[in-house]
Amino acid sequence: MNYPSIFNDVIGPVMRGPSSSHCAASLRIGRICHDLMDGRISEIQIDFDPNGSLATTHKEQGSDMGLFGGFLGWEAYDERLVHSEIHLGAAGIKVNIEIKDIQAEHPNTYKITLSNPWETHQVIAISTGGGMIEVIEIDGTKVSLAGDCFLTLIYATDKQKLKTYLQQSSIFEELEIQTDEGDFLAIKSSAFLNETLIEEIKAMEGVSQVKQIKPVLPVLTGKNQTVPFITCDEMMAYNQDKNLSLWELAVRYESIRGNITSAEVLAKMEQIRIILKNAVETGLKGTQFEDRILGPQSVKFKSMMEDRKLISGDVLNRIIMYVSAIMEVKSSMGVIVAAPTAGSCGAMPGAVLGVADSLGLSDEETVQALMIAGLIGVFIAAHSTFAAEVGGCQAECGSGATMAAAAIVHLAGGNLNQSISAASMALQSSLGMICDPIGNRVEAPCLNRNVMAASNALSCANMALADYDHLIPLDEVIETMYEVGKSIPNTLRCTNLGGLSITKTAKEIEARLTQKYFYKNC
After folding, report:
1. For a 10 Å CB count at each end of the chain, is N or C smaller?
2. How does DSSP assign 303-338, residue by residue?
3. Sequence-separated (6 or more) residues with CB below 8 Å from residue 493
């Protein structure tokens, strides 16, 4: 099992764009394609299945933008990303996108054929939610690659001879042979093979190509990876004789999973906290972006809150303001953190930072709360999904509420059991939530639902602090969320084919934005 990382799978990536499962994931797929072609791409054919979500959302929700940036080798937070199509054209790379039956089993499937005058390669990959990906096929050979290691593909006619040669090298024990099917040997490692060995391999008879593909995730996965627990029940059992707090358990999990120190784990989360805080501050100054439905909402909210013109509820109002600010930064192509996704990037951070600031808590305590949120997200990532295309908005905003509820309990001085209870109640309250973006943009009703999710988190945290009985264990609620998601119709899972997406007004908004884009670029 490839165990989730708090920073890979739950709180991350640092990115720009409307949707992590569309934009950040596609950029990562594009970067793998870039490396596979050694950065030399002349033509690209992209195919989306008509029965998947990408057929109707790839342009407006950022898949094209992300892919193009990835083909150019950019990071997900590159400020040029909004103009990636122009830059791709300036680089002389031709792209054709078709909607055709590719027999895709996953709704977020990318089939990409890349060529230049010397070679052609094909990649099939899926976006699994929150910016996470899996490459499932390269050049017709089945693989399973998450972008969490250094990958070397050696194209050779005699792969057994090649394996024997590698086994005789001093570094073989550090390598993992991912596959030796098809035309290549795929080798995973924690760093690229040394240059001397690569040159020796290239000189071997029958070796035609050696491709080196860099990781696209911030935390690498080593060989023979282990974790101390992977469910809430396992965590409780693990902690019976240790009496660790929930944030300490989160640090323990990530440290063992990523083979990094506790100090490194906390330092990574501190970097995330700073980016989140900057997003709040940026949003509250007012944001602008042309391809956008809503203008800045949080600026007036802040003014009215400070003038005491809103109904009293200082903590909740601060949360609403913070959630709105973060979502507005996302919608204006600013830098945000998908936590756990871009579509739900405001709920958890807005709630946690809002409560921490309202209570006057330290940065250290905020980092601890974010670690707790991340650990709850690990359980969701391992046993359910963050992808609205698979599970509806319950998988995004519902997960954000669940993570935030547990974190808020800690900020309020509650204990581990109360955090778990709050998480269970918050997810129970989110079951069945659909995903139906207005105007085919991940902006509305996403903003409202992020605010609702954060409000749900605060309510459930207070209920848990008062020892309300959550009844259903968190692990069972997570499993239920996944089953409920599968029963939600495809039209209500981020396809722009149902719910608010197909109302008369939503279609008018979509047409207006499409026409505006056409005239701007023709």
Report:
1. C
2. HHHHTT-SPS-HHHHHHHHHHHHHHHHHHTT--EE-
3. 53, 107, 388, 389, 390, 391, 392, 434, 435, 485
The one-letter amino acid code at 311 reads: I
Which residue's entry shows tokens 């992209």?
Answer: 46
Strand 184-189 with 150-156, pairing: antiparallel
Are 344 and 330 in contact, with CB atoms under 8 Å apart? no
Cα–Cα dist 512/516, whole Å: 6
Rg from Cα positions in the chain: 23
Note the pLDDT tens digit of each residue in 470-502: 999 999 999 999 999 999 999 999 999 999 999
DSSP 8-class letter at 179: E
Position 517 confidence tier, pLDDT thresholds 50, 70, 90? low
> Can you tell me the distance from the alpha carbon of 37 to that of 34, in angstroms, rounded to the nearest whole number?
5
Q: Which residues pair with 45 in a beta bridge?
A: 96, 113
Coil, strand or helix at 186: strand
In degrees rounded to 5, what are phi and psi of residue 232? Answer: -65, -40
Q: What's the gap between Cα 442 and its chain centre?
A: 14
Helix or strand holding residue 283 (H, E) = helix 262-284
Beta bridge partners of 109: 126
- Residue 234 CA to residue 228 CA, distance in Å, equals 8
Q: Which residue has the tokens 């722009």?
A: 496
DSSP 124-153: EEEEEETTEEEEEEETTEEEEE-S-SEEEE
For 86-95, 218-227, 372-381, 398-407, which range has the lowest pLDDT when averaged over its residues?
218-227
Spatial CB neighbours of 246, under 8 Å, sequence gap ≥ 6: 372, 375, 406, 410, 416, 419, 420
pLDDT of 358 over the 80 cut: yes
- Please list, in sequence order, all residues whose beta carbon lies within 8 angstroms of the beta carbon of residue 54, skipping any fewer than 6 positions away: 22, 48, 63, 107, 108, 109, 110
* Residue 214 three-state SS: coil
pLDDT in tens, 131-144: 999 999 999 999 99
Query: CB of 15 within 8 A of CB of 130?
Result: no
Q: How many CB atoms lie within 10 A of CB 316?
A: 20
* Residue 348 Cα to chain centre, angstroms: 14
Q: How many whole angstroms separate alpha carbon 298 and alpha carbon 284?
A: 6
Q: Which of 14, 20, 6, 22 is nearest to 75 (CA)?
A: 14
CA end-to-end span of the chain: 49
Q: Is the pLDDT of residue 518 over 70?
A: no
What is the overall mean pLDDT for the chain?
Answer: 96
Residue 8 banded pLDDT, cuts 50, 70, 90: very high
Q: What is the pTM of this model?
A: 0.95
Could you give the CA distance from residue 127 to residue 99 in angstroms, rounded to a whole number? Answer: 17
- In sequence order, the 6+-apart residues with CB closer than 8 A to the CB of 395 are 129, 384, 385, 386, 387, 388, 481, 485
